[in-house]
Amino acid sequence: MNRRNFLRTTAIGAAMAVTPLSFSALGQATRNTVKSGRMRLTFEPYELKLKHAFNLARNQRTSTPGVQVRIDLDGITGYGEASMPPYLGENVESVTGFLSQVDLTQFADPFRVKDIHEYLESIAPNNRAAKASVDIALHDLLGKIMNQPWYKIWGLNPDKAPDTSYTISYNADPDEMNAEIEETAPFKIVKVKMGVGHDKELVRALRAVSAVPICVDANQGWTSKEHALEMCNWLAEQNCRFVEQPMPKEMIDETAWLRERSPLPIIADEFLQRLPDVRKAAGAYDGINIKLMKSTGLHEAHQMAELARALGMKVMLGCMTETSCAVTAAAQLSPMVDWADLDGNLLIANDIFDGTKIVDGKVTIPSDRPGIGVIPLKA
Hints:
This protein has 13 helices and 18 strands. Strands 7-8-9-10-11-12-13-14 form an 8-stranded parallel sheet. Strands 1-2-5-6 form a 4-stranded antiparallel sheet. Helix content is 32%, strand content 20%. The protein is of the alpha/beta class. It has helices at 3-9, 92-99, 113-123, 128-146, 150-153, 174-182, 199-207, 225-236, 252-261, 275-281, 292-295, 298-310, 324-331; strands spanning 32-34, 40-45, 48-55, 60-64, 66-73, 76-83, 166-168, 190-193, 214-217, 240-244, 266-268, 287-290, 314-317, 339-340, 353-354, 357-359, 362-364, 375-376.
């Protein structure tokens, strides 16, 4: 059924019947509903439990707050998600507060993605993860209306999806750290979290059992450009492919200095949030790491990837700790990029969706599922 016929036959001007939200695995989380005459937005908080503690340069955590979102339109459901690690500045209260203000009644045509994004921007500044959750659910809904996955709508070749890295971080408990290292075995590249004072120790522990290529995310943890350069030189000898955000995002001149001297590409992570930041990054970084929770979703992430390519930059596609909902949505973009770090769903113990799979280390997009390609799991 084409878009015009669908919109004609759905009697879109009529108010939709209200049915309860059913995320069967969400337990006793508070339920919230925003009613709308045409599209209906519903959302619930859902905390993501990590399999192993994340030890980063600026914090440690064992869970990540999240909010699960749905947009329903005449029996078709689009799924979305907000995931809020601490450094984003968002939390469950800010996300649910934002979503409580979203009213989609005014949009008779759900395909007006640009208008909907302008409306979301008008509600409040920032709130990037909250906006991403609506964007992801909207893309899932539209893909299902068109009965096509988004990689096809964008004209992308799924065979060009890259290998994904798998993330490990330093752990003072040797057994825990060894367990993390053992989990990297199926992957062709390993992402090492650094900037916590044990950087070389972690790499050496990995190298004791594996020669697999690595990439490094320092999470702004190196505060000296000389130390950053010394680490880049050392990592180049350890079969490292690139380094993400080696120094604090405010140290732009120092990062440009490092880029000129580093044997490894320097990739912007925390420095880069949205589309205007891509041009700013071009002078100090070799590439960018796009994450849906920072870019406000797929609509702007696609634009960011195209602009970076036009500027001659490398493109990486990353994620937060997320369920398969947001990770599979990001995977639809993966044929556009050089590197992928789409392991967020593999790092949690309570996923509630079935979506993208990693086959022989490679991102595999569900080819037979429209929209973003996820199916909710039953409890």
